[in-house]
Amino acid sequence: MEKEIERKSLYRRVTCELHKIGTPAHIKGHNYLRTAIIKMYEDATYHGNMMKRLYPDVADEYETNVSCVERGIRNAIEVAWSRGNLAILEEIFGNTISYSKTKPTNSEFIAMIVDRLKLEDLE
Q1: Distance CA 94, CA 4 (A)
Q2: Number of alpha carbons in the 13 Å side-chain half-sphere of residue 84
């Protein structure tokens, strides 16, 4: 029961972060991205294994293929980067990614959100 409550709380926190950033909830990539973040948050071994483990696991969950997951996540990040909340993007990615120059890769984006959530847990 406690594990389920923690999972729901994490789901809520990740969803709120994605909404703050500006990732539209109506696109498939939003769901793929949320699931990828949750999986990486719960299992650090996904770091460095996006194509071999994370994307296939997300694809299985949504009954789709790896390339659809990768493209969907990339699209969600691109939309957030072009239309999202600049202040939040700067707050999260400001030290590592230049907003004006380039958007983060899928793995950078997911890792930064996971790190942000884990740091909040320490407070």
Answers
A1: 33
A2: 26
Spatial distance between the Cα atoms of 73 and 116, rounded to a whole number of angstroms: 18
Closest by CA to 116, choosing from 31, 18, 8, is: 18
Distances (CA, A) of 56 to 8, 29, 45, 110: 23, 14, 14, 16
Q: What is the pLDDT of residue 4?
A: 79
Helices vs. strands in the chain: H and E counts, helices first = 6, 0
Q: Domain 1-122 is of which CATH architecture? A: Orthogonal Bundle (1.10)
pLDDT in tens, 12-56: 999 999 999 999 899 999 999 999 999 999 999 998 888 899 999
pLDDT of 29 reads 95
DSSP for 23-67, written as a single string? --TTSHHHHHHHHHHHHHHH-GGGTT-IIIIIHHHHHHHHTS-HH
3-state secondary structure of 110: helix
Q: Evaluate the CA torsion angle 45, 28, 65, 71 in order and state its sign.
A: negative
